[in-house]
Amino acid sequence: MSDGLLHTAELPALIAGFFLYADLRRSRTLAPSYAWAGLFLGLGAFQLFDGIVDHTLCACTRSVTAWTLPPTTGHGTSPAWRFF
Which of 70, 73, 81, 82 is deepest in the core (most CB within 10 A)? Predict the structure, then answer.
């Protein structure tokens, strides 16, 4: 649930960023190298925030993998499944 709330909150910021980008481009004050740097810094900052806050501190969006599922009939006899 927290992942959905995070992405819902990011949508207005993304739209505002497009409007700011369009305004800079329209006024011919856009520096392409700074725009690319800002894009990559923003992407990295979002990944850092999403990984630390949303997936680690909140721990609300843990994914279910094959290791966390109970063994099925065929896997119950495997020695590897006895450790999990």
Answer: 81
